[in-house]
Amino acid sequence: MFWLTDFWRWRSRWKRNRTRSNTFKVELYTRWSFHSFGGFEAGLIGVPALGAGGGRLGGWLFLLVCAHAGLCTVLQSRALDWRLGRRERPVRLLLGTAALSTAAVLTVLALLSTGAIPRNEDYAFLLTGFSGFGLASTALGLRTTAHMAYAVLGAAATTALAGLLFGLGAGSVLPHAIGVAASGTGLVFTYVFSAWLVHAVWELETARELATRLAVAEERLRFGRDLHDVMGRNLAVIALKSELAVQLAERGRPEAVAQMTEVQRIARESQREVRDVVRGYREADLRNELEGARGVLKAAGIDCRIEGDDGGALSAEVQSALGWVVREATTNVLRHGDARRCTVRLTAPAGQEERAAVLVVENDGAPDPAAAGAMAPARTGSGLAGLRERLAALDGTLEAGRTDDGRFRLTARVPLPAPGPAGSVSGDSVSGDSMSGHGSMSGDEVAA
């Protein structure tokens, strides 16, 4: 029952998290490493036990080893979940595993003292398996290092005392106790350190998500503060002047027209100021975004190479649009797939033939085709959809998809007008109204 429950639970978690970052993969690797130790115990210790006991006794010993390995594996899975804060501490399972391990060690010593099993390496493996794997599994459910040390010393002392009581002699008991202490210490350190590492990795993942949410909240607060500073005073003036104009109109005073004219002027000024605030949030500096992408990807362990032009000769509108492409592509590389290398290449026009700026972002961490919706063009994600709208305002295009060699490539192309007499593009080619009506991105995407 334990096995079926854990299997279906992990099957559902794997389907939900297989396209996420490496955090889930680290936990999965650690968990199944624990399970593999249970298989090693059943195969490398249980199978030789068949010959050590001989006949029916060997079969019972084999079943005892398999039962011990299975119980230890279940305890390891439950104890790891407890250490990660997903379930309560498995106290009953912990006590049951400790009791079975102790009973198994005493059984081996009793059989050894009666001569039912020969004094060879097989019985030494049995003692090591029952004591070492039992200690390592129970250590995962203990709270402090002192408790783990007491458990190892207690197991070694119990082995020595039981061996003396069964008449094995001090010369035989001492190596047994040392072996139990050594194997228990090594396995306990391995198991506990692995569980601590998984916990630390998940804490880092949680901290990163928290930092992202805090950045989004901070950006929203800043936007709200700026908007309040811009609109608060003007709205108060509009309200006062409108009230004054009403009073003047009721009295038939001609000054009401002048007051409403002033209200109209303030309203238009407020509209312009709001547009400036929004435009400031929607503009991105291409050079800063390229350097930011290099730093962020490097911090995430991804080799990032910036090639080609820096875009300094492009107009402000084109630089802003391509800057958003770099930001969104960098975010997708971090959030989806498992990239090790990323290349950002910007090609600016060098002559009269090619009049288009081309930005290519390519990485080797493309997810599986079934999960490629994270960046696939067919998906109507707000990030890529916003980029397409922003580029469309400049007659640009955006292409994204997997290449034949399994890499993922995002290509943004913005056509540029032929240089006029002044050799530059007018800043009025895209009006403020068009910029505020197309390609808007939410605060979550800005802070992503």
General description of the model:
The protein is an alpha+beta fold and about 450 residues long. It folds into 2 domains: about 1-210, no CATH class; about 285-445, Histidine kinase-like ATPase, C-terminal domain (Heat Shock Protein 90, 2-Layer Sandwich), CATH 3.30.565. It has helices at about 1-15, 20-55, 55-85, 90-115, 120-140, 145-165, 170-250, 255-280, 285-300, 315-335, 380-390, 430-435, 445; strands spanning about 305-310, 340-345, 355-365, 395-400, 410-415. A 5-stranded mixed sheet has the order 1-2-3-5-4. Helix 3 (about 55-85) runs antiparallel to helix 4 (about 90-115), helix 3 packs parallel to helix 5 (about 120-140) and helix 5 packs parallel to helix 7 (about 170-250). The longest helix is centred in the middle third of the chain and has 81 residues, at about 170-250. The protein is elongated, with a radius of gyration of 35 Å. The relative contact order is 0.07.
Question: How would you summarize what this structure contains?
Answer:
The protein has helices at 2-17, 22-53, 55-83, 91-114, 121-139, 145-165, 170-250, 255-282, 286-299, 316-335, 382-392, 432-437, 443-447; strands spanning 303-308, 341-347, 356-363, 397-402, 408-415. With 448 residues, it is an alpha+beta fold.
